[in-house]
Amino acid sequence: MGIRFILMVNKQGQTRLAQYYEWLTLEERRALEGEIVRKCLARNEQQCSFVEHRNYKIVYRRYASLFFLVGVDNDENELAILEFIHLLVETMDRHFGNVCELDIMFHLEKAHFMLEEMVMNGSVVETSKANILSPIQLMEKAS
Amino acid sequence: MSGPSLMDSLFQRSLEDIIKGLRQQLIGEQAFISKALDEIRKEIKSTDLSTKSTALLKLSYLSNLHFHDMSFAAFPALEVLSSPRFSHKKIAYHAISFSFHDSTPVLLLITNHLRKDLNSTNEFEVSLSLQCLSRIANVDLARDLTPEVFTLLSSNKLYVRKRAVAVVLRVFEKYPDSVRVCFKRLVENLENSDPQILSSVVGVFSELACKDPRSYLPLAPEFYKILVDSKSNWISIKVLKIFSKLAPLEPRLAKRVVEPVCDLLRNTGAKSLLFECIRTVVTSLSEYESAVRLAVGKVREFLMDDDPNLKYLGLQALRIVAEKHLWAVSENKEVVIKSLSDADPNIKIESLRLVMAMVSEHNVSEISRVLVNYALKSDPVFCNEILGSILSTCSRNLYEIIVDFDWYVSLLGEMSRIPHCQMGEEIENQLIDIGLRVKDVRPELVRVARYLLIDPALLGNSFLHSVLSAAAWASGEYVEFSRNPLELMEALLQPRTSLLPPSIRGIYIQSAFKVLVFCLHTCFVRGGSIVPSASLNNLPAGVSASASYESFDEFSVENGADVTVVHGQTRASAPITKESIVNLLNLVELALGPLLGSHDVEVQERARNLLGIVDLTKPEVLNSSVQEKDDSEGKGVETSQIIKLMHDAFSKELGPVSLSAQGKVSLPDGLVLKENLGDLEMICGDIEPPSSNSFSFGSPYEEKDGLSFSNLQIKEDSEQSNESTSLLAEHRKRHGLYYLPSGKSELISNDYPPANDPTLQCDINDNDDNLVKITAESLVPKRKPNHGKPRPVVVKLNEVDEKPVAMKQPESRDGSLSGAVRDVLFGREDIPPTSSQSNLSNKPSSKRKGKEKQHTDPHLESKENVIDDGNSSSRRKDRSHGKERRHRSPRKKNFEERKDTDQKEKEKSRRHHGRHKSRQRAEEPLKVTAQTPVIPDFLL
Asked: Which of B:192-211 have CB within 8 Å of A?
């Protein structure tokens, strides 16, 4: 399946976006997010961006006050996932203009929509920023 | 039900209001959320779809980020889904993707909604419902919607088609029979030139190939083409993943692939692709020396990089290489060892694993020494990581790499003294295991055990308790190797043992029992005859006497060459005199008296046993020391017989017990095993299962008397033993009551020294260089001219060391999935899809048809029936593709031709092959049911 989940978490450890590509109960999610956030937020800039957790590999990257965490299968390419995170951030940057935590909080739906454009069933299906954003722009025009 | 008032919907709070409210935190988050949830519960019952959808939106927000259950909104979500407005649909699909799962009761009701939207002309609606299907599809949904997905696989809208491709993965997983319908179209998409489509179809195949690579070998030519032509790094990475799964299965394929992979390796600028190439080479193409060299060169660049990410990945890659090419590690050993002290714990662990990969028989002691020093200065987590990996590496395959067990046992003792050590249980198991398996190591084991037992400070560390229990057990079991059983007895009964948990205290007492029996036995049964007690009468027992043992040590060393005469027991028996026995008995009474009232049954019972034997022997000991032997002849014999009996019982040797030993015991008559004891569970619920240190008595091999101890090296590590004996001595000073009387006075210090005073700090600094040197030496395949001594025998049981037979796994869904894929890919397409069967039945030869039926796999047939029932529409479509399919398959099997750009040539040969194939089919109609498909010769 490749990507199992995508989380955006702020410095305080509050989840700002959570997208799962496999079914977990609310309790499992809560536990998983707690553990992962604790693990990743404790790490510093000099340490690598990969953490093994249970049967996942977590690839994470910090942008300003937001952590982007992606849980992947064990044989997924870590560096490619880092590139994916960067693409995601760039795309949001282009849409929101210097994206920040508040943009994601108040436009969670759009953030989800962008993710859905990029990832389908755990695999990346779109990597062009223009293509990702065009449906959203269409929708904004329509409403 | 009261309908919502106009006011409700007019003044409904939007999601934005909720978010703002949450940020302001006026009434506290929980209170605010529960208020909002109350509103939502009302609003969601509204008949107005926009009110309902807003409520649903708010609810999915709260569910997504604040973990609030939204299962109650399952039906309202479906209602919103039926709205004609796109914005409503979007909200509903989103909520459903989040909250529906296999056991959602209304899942069945969604099928038609999905079908309608899958057939919609609005590509965004199709996309939404595909997205949703990819998240919630179960068997029913996958089966019912297979035809729609099949249609979308060749949609002319790229936007839709690439999503349909991605969804296929989930559909296949849930409903393997859909492979028969969709697989051909999926494969067709492999030839699409559009990078978007290609990206998602390659993604699907890389996932499929992960589970069962063999089934996809026939597609290798297609993948090869993509690998060579691809411009997108993302696609290249996925194709490389596929090849790393396929290449090990087919050497000819590996040979073809190695060149393009190396090209990529040399030329790519993207680190992600570079790393994927490295990983492919080291995992799957490791036979190709030049490719591995190239990859290792790139790994080196990664290791040298400042970026911790690249460093980490480089170490990981190196670890994979190490399995087959150890030289790669030795070339980079400086970096690896430097990483042991990296700032990042993950990198440290990776480099630790690599260091452990370098361990061999020749360097194990040096590397362990250095690592233990690292452990001393590391943080607790990494310290235990180091200890754990030393333990597991050394014990691998029954201590395969250990030659010098004396060294290893003392290492175990040393490791347990490291301040952060939490590996107590593992050390415990290994100490006992080695004691049982390796006869020659027992004297050293007892020495190490004594060293641990004698230090009162260790008793305060709860992580060490299990090690101490092993030490206690070993010293009791092998007491005959002890140089000073009396001292051992003191250690076992020292007051601070009250800090131990009762189960371990029980072991202590039991060991004390064994030691006592041993002492009595030496004193009464053989003592008199061997050692004239008069000459040693004044010998003070305990620590202060150690000086006088020197002579005995020398004695035994001198006689070391004389193989059979010198037995461990002769040395031990020396200091035991009547007087010391009396003191010993008093000590036992004093120490164990209070335990008769212990709350723990185990402790109480064992204490009672021990005191029982004290009561039995004490009068006689006292008698015989006062009177002449002749007087108490009658009774004395009786007692000494009992002691002899006890001693014999204890000196029966314990051996390792096979895991399957119990199975060999025949079932006694009248024993009912099958009866249901379920109702006992209540009563026995909290009884612990037997722990690993409970051993059954039995002698799996005969005890050999007159065992040689010529190779026993008595290491008089005077400094260390003095240290810990002085601890005991100190304790004796304070609680003299509990100790045997000693002649000398000892120094007094204020308090116990810290439990684990690492005295080895000094040489830590030059560790790095040290380790580099050691590994460098060890990696040169030098033969040690002669080991100091031969490796002792390690007892192995026939079956104990094999893993218990693994349970046969029931055939999983994946099995049926790959089965289906194989059916489609290998020749079987002639029968399975219903289309061809109906074709067959049109043929006049009814005789053949009968034959055909007979030989058809019944399993296959039943599956066809399922398709027959469920998918009449797909069957129609399938039939129309039947013709094309038949032409395609032979083409695939011709790898060389794939590369040929000459279109005409290709066309010709295809026709030729097609003809050939159809002739074959006519001739051998039965072959199609062959169980093992032959891998087509696509590489020749």
From this structure: 196, 199-200, 203-204, 207, 210
Q: Of how many residues is chain B composed?
A: 940
For B658-677, what is each residue's pLDDT tens digit? 777 777 777 777 777 777 76
B104 touches chain A (CB under 8 A): no
Burial class (CB in 10 A: 0-12, 13-18, 19+), B445: buried
Q: Could you report the per-residue pLDDT of B784-804, keeping only the tens digit for each?
A: 444 456 677 777 765 544 444
Nearest to B540 by CA among B494, B575, B571: B575
Question: Across the 143 residues of chain A, what is the mean pLDDT of every consecutive 10-residue run?
Answer: 89 91 90 92 88 91 92 91 94 91 90 91 88 89 79
| H-state helical runs in B344-441 | 345-358, 364-377, 380-399, 405-416, 424-437
Residue B246 in contact with residue B209, Cβ under 8 Å?
A: yes
B94/A109 CB distance under 8 A: yes
What token pair was written down for B298? 């790139």
Highest mean pLDDT among B329-338, B401-410, B630-639, B783-792: B401-410
Give the end-to-end CA distance of chain B in Å, rounded to a whole number. Answer: 75
Collapsing DSSP states into helix, strand and coil, what is residue B463?
helix
CB neighbour list of residue B711: distance below 8 Å, 6 or more residues apart: B440, B789
Q: Given the DSSP bridges, would you call strands A50-53 and A56-63 parallel, antiparallel or unpaired? A: antiparallel
Report the distance separating Cα B83 and Cα B352, nearest Å: 59
pLDDT in tens, B242-262: 999 999 998 889 999 999 999
The number of beta carbons lying within 10 Å of the beta carbon of residue B356 is: 19
Note whether B56 and B80 are within 8 A (CB). Answer: yes
Model ipTM over 0.85: yes
Q: Which residues contact A84 (CB under 8 A, 6 or more apart)?
A: A70, A118, A124
Mutate to test the interface with A, among B20, B65, B129, B231 (most CBs of A within 10 A): B65
Instruction: Name the residue facing B275 among A79, A113, A125 (closest C-beta).
Output: A79
DSSP B758-802: ---GGGGTTHHHHHHHHHHHHHS-PPPS--SSPPPP----TTTTS
What whole-number distance in Å separates Cα of residue B360 and Cα of residue B777?
11
Of the residues A77, A84, A109, A115, the best mutation for testing chain B's interface (the one with the most B CB atoms within 10 Å of its CB) is A77
Residue B705 binned pLDDT confidence (cut-offs 50, 70, 90): very low
Answer yes or no: do B101 and A124 touch at CB < 8 A.
no
Place of tokens 């003299």: B736
The neighbour count for residue A96, using CB atoms within 10 Å, is: 16
Q: Compute how many other C-beta atoms are within 10 angstroms of the C-beta atom of residue B666.
A: 6
Q: Which residues of B touch A88 (CB under 8 A)?
A: none
Q: Does A51 contact B346 at a Cβ distance shorter than 8 Å?
A: yes
Mean pLDDT across B200-211: 90
Least confident of B302-316, B348-362, B421-435, B637-651: B637-651
Which helix (H) or strand (E) segment holds residue B476: the answer is: helix B465-477
The shortest C-alpha distance from A1 to chain B (Å) reads: 6
CA-to-CA distance for B370 and B764, rounded, in angstroms? 8
Average pLDDT over residues B633-655: 71
CA dist list (Å): B151 to A116, B185, B882: 22, 9, 15
